[in-house]
Amino acid sequence: MKRLTLLATMLFVSLLLAGQARAQQWVASWTASVHGPYPVGNPTAQPELKYAFAAAQQGARNQSFRMIVRPDVWGPQTRIRLSNAFGTQPVTFNDTFVGLQESGSAVLKGTNQRVLFGGQKSVTVPPGQSVVSDAVALPFVKTPADPLLKGRKLAVSFHVVGESGPMTWHAKALQTSYIASAGSGPHSQDEGESAFPYSTTSWYFLDEVDMNLLAKADVIVAFGDSITDGTASTINGDDRWPDVLSRRLHAAYGDDFVVVNEGIGGNQVVGPAEYTPAKPMAGGPSALSRLDRDVISLPGVSAVIWLEGINDFGADASADAVMAGYTKGVDYLRQKMPGVRIFVATLTPALNSAIASHGRPEVDAKRKALNEFFRTSKIFDGVIDFDKATLDPATGEVKAEFQPNSSTGGPGDKLHPNRAGYAAMGNTIDLAVITGRQK
């Protein structure tokens, strides 16, 4: 009888564990679209980096990075993706750790955990490729829904062995991260600040952080250009429109929904026709050419919110070309991701922008034509009207109160909304529409 009881207990525990394993789900919890080799890009409030990186062609030289990121949801396990997408030579990473940021470049004592790749401390990533780490436990995540973890940031530290060559990066982080001195060797395990004297407002090599959740969650990808990337919002403020949307979703539905940001400052829907490490441009490769990497490859994606096109018009693309690009992109996403929900956001005003190429009346006419296409087309699952949320009907410009720049100061450029403008955008989104359910 005792043996039967023991067997029954073992069977129950096995079924319970199997059920938990089935319930667990990897989801993308933070992303940044890498878009080219440093220093080609559009950073905001970037410090002078000549003391950190002597030459762009050499890149990192036997030095450590501490990238600070904010996961949108926490889980008991994490994994990271390191990218050499725009490198021209193999890059070797070792001494990789993840820990809870305390302040600045300091990691909270006892939280720094070693990250392995295929069970090894070192990994070499060929040019044009990326690598996903093994799962690593986060013992400080006692309860994923712990309110004390909300808004906390993860320090992802890694060491580049030798010279990296041109560094794959995301320029407009709007988040302060940290770099060790060239030639200083591995310091990822250090919990203090002294090993990381240089700051940057960009992310290097790191483009994804996943979390393993105990319950199902749906990932919503914010996909677009600088207005999704957050130009003119505050440094370290996490107040881009996707951040505002994220906080609203978590307040309404807990951790059932996760928002990640795949915006690139200067990005276009259909341009440029060619993009290579040898022929880069600040806005990165076209949206159509990065769908596989920045949307389809991410775990847990259920919906996409797509906002861009103004940079195409600034480069004199026709409205018809951008409409055709959207149609092609939507078709491709539906083919590769059956069941994905695709929402489009209307373009915000750029009339009379200080960026002359974008502020022309003919660009505004194309913008209006594209917005009308969005509002009347049947290819999308819904339309989010950011134009209505930000337009001053009397002037045709961005509302005056949304113009002053929140990150670098000054009057703004009449293209990028400020913190108040992004709040208006994030708050205009109907949560029931994008989630498919009521609160």
Descriptive overview:
By secondary structure, this protein is an alpha+beta fold. The protein folds into 2 domains: 24-208, no CATH class; 217-435, SGNH hydrolase (Rossmann fold). 24% of the residues lie in helices and 25% in strands. The chain is built from 10 helices and 21 strands. It has helices at residues 2-23, 226-229, 241-253, 291-296, 310-314, 319-336, 361-376, 386-390, 419-428, 431-435; strands spanning 25-31, 36-37, 61-69, 77-83, 91-103, 106-107, 113-115, 122-125, 130-132, 136-137, 154-163, 168-170, 177-179, 198-200, 203-204, 206-213, 218-224, 257-263, 301-307, 341-345, 382-384. The strands form 4 sheets. Strands 3, 5, 6, 7, 8, 11, 13 and 14 form an 8-stranded antiparallel β-sheet that branches. Strands 1, 4, 9, 10 and 16 form a 5-stranded antiparallel β-sheet that branches. A 5-stranded parallel β-sheet has the order 18-17-19-20-21, with helices on both faces. Strand 20 (341-345), helix 7 (361-376) and strand 21 form a beta-alpha-beta unit. Helix 6 packs parallel to helix 7.
